[in-house]
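Please go through the protein record below and see whether the fold suits the sequence. Record follows.
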Amino acid sequence: MDPLTLPDDSREWHQCFTRIDAGMFEGSRGPTDECYAWVIQFIRRNWTGLLTHLESLPWPNPHSVQVLTRDEDDDCFGLWMMYDGRLTEVPLPRTTREPFSDTILGVLTRTDRVVE
């Protein structure tokens, strides 16, 4: 993950990942040996190429790679996992993804939500 924690002008997206580990929850503020997750925040549609870039990395255990995405119009996070070297969205119960031109992936909507 080290390269993803540093700026890189050759990527289509320029934000950097931050690690979330036990230190955050224990209040020590220092990194621990175990890392629970990595997070990154994008403003609007400037994360083009992220999934493709993540697919291209030499993951020691690609089956453990899970990516949660949530665009501003989504009702919930979408789950992506590595299958045959590709990040593929895992269908979640009671959700549907509809194409929408203003987003990279379309909009993920809960089919069981009450519209007020």
About this structure: The longest strand covers residues 78-83. The chain has one domain: 2-110. The beta strands are 18-21, 35-39, 66-69, 78-83, 86-90, 95-98, 107-110.
